[in-house]
Structure formats: structure tokens, C-alpha cells
């Protein structure tokens, strides 16, 4: 697929999701998806910033604005939520990327 930083699990999911696309649709999908997907290491870094007083950035990046505001105002639920996000950063990123996959597939198959 040529997307940097992609995990084997994500690659398998993408291969299954894009199996029915033709070459032109696949090019469009890769272009859209690579611009919207999030990298697991980036989410980990944003989560670690929560311990420096910037709690909730990872939630904003993952389009969870309400949770981002709550984390920011409560200092990451007194760091407990930040610790939980630190543990779950990979699954949070995977869920976001799967949602982006579905959105990009709808755009590509629907003709934008």
C-alpha cells in the first residue's frame, strides 16, 4: 500500500476492506486514507504530553472534542484518564483508523 508507519494488523484490515476496489479507486483511497490516518506513536506522544499539563490533546487529535475538553479541564481526570489512554493508545488509534477507512471507502465508492 505504500503508507508509512502502518502496522501489520492495520494492513490486514485495509486489504480486507479494499479488496473490491479497482486500481483507480485504490489510488484515490490510499491518497485520502494516508492524509487522514493517525500514527500510533503520535497518539502516544500526545498522551504523554498530558503529564506535562496538556491533558486531552490525544482526544482532540482523534476527533473526540468533548472528551478532550473534559480531560483538559480536569487535568486528564487527575491523570487517571491519561494513564488509561497511555495503556489504550494503540486501540484508540486503531478504532480511529478503522472509522477513517470506512469514511474513505464511502468517498471513493460514492465518487466523492
From TrEMBL:
Keyword Cell inner membrane on entry: no
Keyword terms, alphabetized: Membrane, Transmembrane, Transmembrane helix
Locations listed in the record: Membrane
TM regions (residue ranges): 43-62, 68-87
Cellular component annotations (GO), alphabetically ordered: membrane
Chief localization: membrane
InterPro entries (UniProt xref): TM2 (IPR007829)
Domain of life: Bacteria
Membrane topology: Multi-pass membrane protein
Domain TM2: 45-87
Name of the protein described by the UniProt record: TM2 domain-containing protein
Organism lineage string: Bacteria, Pseudomonadati, Bacteroidota, Sphingobacteriia, Sphingobacteriales
Amino acid at each position: 500500500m505504500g503508507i508509512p508507519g502502518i502496522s501489520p494488523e492495520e494492513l490486514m484490515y485495509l486489504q480486507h476492506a479494499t479488496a473490491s476496489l479497482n486500481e483507480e479507486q485504490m489510488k484515490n483511497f490510499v491518497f485520502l486514507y494516508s492524509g487522514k490516518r493517525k500514527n500510533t506513536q503520535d497518539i502516544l506522544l500526545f498522551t504523554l504530553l498530558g503529564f506535562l499539563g496538556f491533558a486531552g490533546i490525544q482526544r482532540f487529535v482523534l476527533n473526540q472534542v468533548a472528551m478532550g475538553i473534559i480531560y483538559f479541564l480536569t487535568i486528564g481526570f487527575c491523570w487517571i484518564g491519561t494513564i488509561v489512554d497511555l495503556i489504550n493508545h494503540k486501540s484508540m488509534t486503531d478504532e480511529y483508523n478503522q472509522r477513517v477507512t470506512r469514511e474513505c471507502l464511502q468517498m471513493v465508492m460514492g465518487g466523492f
